[in-house]
Amino acid sequence: MKKIALSALVVASLFTAPAFAGNPVANKATASTAKPADAAYKVQPQLSKLGWEGKAVTHGHNGTADFTGGEILVRGNQIVGGTVTVDMKTLKATDITDAENNAKFMGHINSDDFFSTAKNPTATFKIKSVTPIKGAAADANNVNITGDLTIKGITNSVTFPAKAGVKNGVAAASGVATVNRTKYDIKYGSKSFFEGIGDKAIYDDFTLSFNVIAKK
């Protein structure tokens, strides 16, 4: 059957992935990070969402994965750091409705061709900096987040826009990150490494959509 990479993080990911609502934060960031935190808020896995989408030349797939925990570092009404963890064994493809085909697809996604989840059961994202986007509208992405995304035990720096802030004891960040899977030794079906595969090629980039909620 046709197969495609997930994306992760992790910290998914690879979007026509679902957009996750329910972000309670409307505060606008006003300064860069690299400041010490006043408090560490605990990530709420039951309130947080992670979606992924990967595409090939002729098709694509999307799904979800679960956060297991982490902490968000807060100073005032700003997020200034933190780490989140994803349980890679919770990866799901939500667009494949046939149970047999879904099981086959996920078996391949969990294999060494892709995420090696038996050997690497978690992915993590560690925030290194949060930089305000000048002139951002109230309902738009207001920061650029840079951090270390670790998948399959391999760590690379990624940067993506997000809407983030802190209000009434709740810290939240939502957005979409684009990840190059080949940087995490996920090369299956990549034209960058296998010539002549034509329409069987899987694109290197996948997207992750996220909504992370943390509380005091």
From TrEMBL:
<dbReference type="Pfam" id="PF04264">
    <property type="entry name" value="YceI"/>
</dbReference>
<dbReference type="InterPro" id="IPR007372">
    <property type="entry name" value="Lipid/polyisoprenoid-bd_YceI"/>
</dbReference>
<feature type="signal peptide">
    <location>
        <begin position="1"/>
        <end position="21"/>
    </location>
</feature>
<feature type="domain" description="Lipid/polyisoprenoid-binding YceI-like">
    <location>
        <begin position="40"/>
        <end position="215"/>
    </location>
</feature>
<protein>
    <submittedName>
        <fullName>Lipid-binding protein</fullName>
    </submittedName>
</protein>
<dbReference type="InterPro" id="IPR036761">
    <property type="entry name" value="TTHA0802/YceI-like_sf"/>
</dbReference>
<keyword id="KW-0732">Signal</keyword>
